[in-house]
């Protein structure tokens, strides 16, 4: 299988031309206590992505439904999500190994989040699933992405950026 990574160039603060990747990340809606956390727009990954680097830009898609999880013996439910891109962020760190990234779900499954990536919010958005499908030119796309992170081309990124309101 051939892997394609899309890059765009920009001029860094040091005056060098750097490459930027564009991504679409899939997130669950956050519980009430998570929404106020400083890491609410960070990326949590199940697999290392060495091609995800500082200054990359990522649209965050929030799913509509999500699993409840167990924390300190208490079941934490998440509200229904917007089923839309909710934010555009800029990556500020490379992937870092998590020491305890396991999330135990109410149904007994376990999500093994192995890496975290810090980001800063560039802007909040509201891009519906229908509009995302148009931007990606994938009419049947269902927001299922292996590993929760997919590269997008510069053209796809710019079409989504134009819809970001």
Shape: globular
Class by SSE composition: mainly beta
The CATH topology is what?
A: ph1033 like fold
How many domains, as an integer?
1
What is the CA–CA distance across the termini?
Answer: 36 Å
Counted beta strands? 13
Mean pLDDT: 81
Spans of at least 5 consecutive residues whose pLDDT stays below 50 are: 1-13
CATH superfamily: ph1033 like domains
Whole-angstrom Rg? 16 Å
Query: What's the helical proportion of residues?
Result: 10-25%
- What is the architecture at the second tier of CATH? Roll
CATH class: Alpha Beta
Describe the structure.
By secondary structure, this protein is mainly β. It is globular, with a radius of gyration of 16 Å. α1 runs antiparallel to α2 (154-163). It is built from 2 helices and 13 strands; from the N terminus they run ββββββββββββαβα. 19% of the residues are buried. The chain has one domain (7-163): ph1033 like fold, CATH 3.10.590.10. The model is unreliable at 1-13 (pLDDT under 50).
